[in-house]
Design a protein that fits this description.
The protein is α/β, with parallel strands linked by helices. It has helices at 20-29, 46-55, 72-83, 100-113, 117-126, 135-143, and strands spanning 5-8, 12-15, 34-37, 58-61, 90-93. Helices cover 43% and strands 13% of the residues. The protein has a 5-stranded mixed beta sheet with strand order 1-2-5-3-4, sandwiched between helices. α4 runs antiparallel to α5. The longest helix is centred in the last third of the chain and has 14 residues, at 100-113.
């Protein structure tokens, strides 16, 4: 699978869009309870939804633009999902696992694991995020004010 990574062992994983074989393998290997898909509705693979339904895996869609940071509504949906312990283990993905998945993984690390913004951005880049192509995402992280401070 392209761009697969562990955010928190046993709890949270990230990747690019899985194919059928990867979906079956990783869902079983990591005992996935929730799939979080960040792609637009028109790009959601029907086999993924069917697989989730058949296996009793919760399928959540938070459609995001790959060139734009998350909206307040998207952030609320995301954090609500993460704050419910029954949703874990979670597998989050978009098409390439770099931009949408990258920013959401970065925000998780900042909010829940206490990472610095710079460390979170460095990890985004290690998963093939290319800042010059998506400057809004990096700018958003630099300007981000933790929900725990609000």
């Amino acid at each position: 699978m392209l761009n697969f990574g562990t955010i928190v062992q046993g709890r949270f994983y990230r990747s690019a869009q899985p194919d059928r074989d990867d979906l079956k393998y990783y869902a079983k290997k990591y005992k996935i309870r929730t799939i979080l898909n960040l792609r637009f509705q028109r790009n959601i693979e029907s086999f993924e939804v069917s697989f989730a339904n058949k296996k009793g895996i919760q399928f959540i869609s938070i459609p995001m633009d790959p060139d734009e940071p998350p909206t307040p509504e998207q952030l609320n949906q995301y954090f609500d999902l993460l704050l419910n312990g029954e949703n874990y283990p979670i597998w989050m993905h978009c098409k390439g696992g770099a931009d949408r998945t990258g920013i959401m993984a970065a925000l998780y690390r900042i909010e829940f694991l206490g990472w610095s913004k710079n460390d979170a951005i460095t990890e985004m880049i290690s998963f093939f995020h290319f800042p010059p192509a998506h400057p809004n995402l990096i700018d958003f992280i630099h300007a981000y004010d933790s929900i725990s401070k609000k």
